[in-house]
Amino acid sequence: MSTVADQTRPAREEPWTGPLLDVRNLHVEFRTRDGVVRAVNGVNYSVAAGETLAVLGESGSGKSVTAQAIMGILDMPPAAIPEGEILYRGRDMLKMSKEERRKIRGQKIAMIFQDALSSLNPVLPVGFQLGEMYRAHRGSNRKEAKAKAIELMDRVRIPAARERVGDYPHQFSGGMRQRIMIAMALALEPDLIIADEPTTALDVTVQAQVMDLLAELQAEYHMGLILITHDLGVVADVADKIAVMYAGRIVETAPVHDLYARPAHPYTRGLLDSIPRLDQKGQELYAIKGLPPNLLRIPPGCAFNPRCPRAQEICRHEVPPLAQVTEDDGTPVAGRGSACFFWKETLHDG
Ligand SMILES: Nc1ncnc2c1ncn2[C@@H]1O[C@H](COP(=O)(O)OP(=O)(O)OP(=O)(O)O)[C@@H](O)[C@H]1O
Ligand code: SF4
Ligand SMILES: [Mg+2]
């Protein structure tokens, strides 16, 4: 018997024109012996096909926990999701059965983690691990699976893929292993990839190569990509838009170039000022004063107030909503929002 919800849902064959993923007012908390850790406190973001969203923020701001909630890989308990929706093609994954969710995970939404070495099985050849995706999900036989593994290794530009398909993870360099992780994520042709600090463990030149490859494949397959990072420099060239997180909230959203040129939140300003610049060699690097908040006791009002150079009395009592950023004449700037009472001043003065 079909329900009202079923009837309002788009049929499977119909092309979906809305965002691939739409996270709405997501809250995640951890119930620990010390109290409730409020890791995610009302996150909203969305990603369309062919779009790259970078999620930026200091350590502990809730970037990974949000991603784990989307993937459905949080251990519950201790984690709980007291509020929010995670819409995949318009349907709330939090209301899906385990079976439905399992079909989306890995097949429709894939994740790349920071540490390839601990994500790959050290005792199995990489080609076997790639081929396993096809054996398990597509019913391929060994020969087909091996051919697919070589094709994928070629795709992510592993030199001499045919000869290396039998090699073990430790026989590859860090950059090559991260390419194998990208190949794993791509294997089942997902709609969306979430890459959580995919290049943090690599040195700078290799970082750029892996990031370029990821961006190129994302464009080629017209996938959505969520790039999680605490390094603004890494995502500048590849992201379309940025969501800045602080204490489990999105404090600023903007198209990538607008954010660099004119930040509308003092925290973003601080992050930009802490990037080392070639023309300022030798000068002392700016650092945002103080430490990220303890998520067991988030400061009342704006969570950033104890560290904010602009803080006023109101900031200590009221939580600033994510306001639409406008030009002086009141025209809304597309895709721009700031959770600061004084975004106008920040936008003007820097
Ligand atoms: N299982 C858990 N139990 C208790 N607290 C947790 C658990 N997992 C995560 N947290 C807390 O949730 C908060 C958000 O963590 P998260 O991993 O999302 O941060 P992040 O923004 O990804 O930081 P990083 O840049 O260091 O990866 C942190 O304070 C973390 O300690
Ligand atoms: S609301 Fe107040 S404390 Fe928060 S970022 Fe804006 S000025 Fe700073
Ligand atoms: Mg993280």
CATH fold title of the largest domain: Rossmann fold
Q: Look at the structure and give the CATH class of the largest domain.
A: Alpha Beta
Q: What would you say the CATH architecture of the largest domain is?
A: 3-Layer(aba) Sandwich
- Indicate the percent of residues in helices: 25-40%
Number of helices: 13
Structural category is: alpha/beta
Bound molecules: adenosine-5'-triphosphate, iron/sulfur cluster, magnesium ion
Task: Name the strands of the widest sheet in spatial order.
Answer: 6-7-8-3-9-10-12-11
Q: What kind of assembly state do the chains in view correspond to?
A: single chain
* Cα distance spanning the termini: 58 Å
Shape: globular
Whole-number average pLDDT? 88
The topology string of helices and strands comes to HEEEHEEHEHHHHHEHEHEEHHEEH
Number of domains: 2
The CATH superfamily label of the largest domain reads: P-loop containing nucleotide triphosphate hydrolases
Query: Which range does the strand content fall in?
Result: 15-25%
Number of strands: 12
Kindly summarize this structure in a few lines.
The chain has helices at 4-8, 63-71, 98-104, 116-119, 126-138, 142-155, 161-164, 174-186, 204-221, 232-235, 256-261, 266-273, 343-349; strands at 21-32, 35-47, 52-56, 79-88, 91-92, 109-112, 192-196, 224-229, 241-246, 249-255, 323-326, 332-338.
List the defining traits of the structure above.
four-stranded antiparallel β-sheet, 32% helix, disordered N terminus, alpha/beta, 12 strands, binds magnesium ion, 350 residues, binds adenosine-5'-triphosphate, 2 domains, single chain, eight-stranded mixed β-sheet, globular, binds iron/sulfur cluster, Rossmann fold
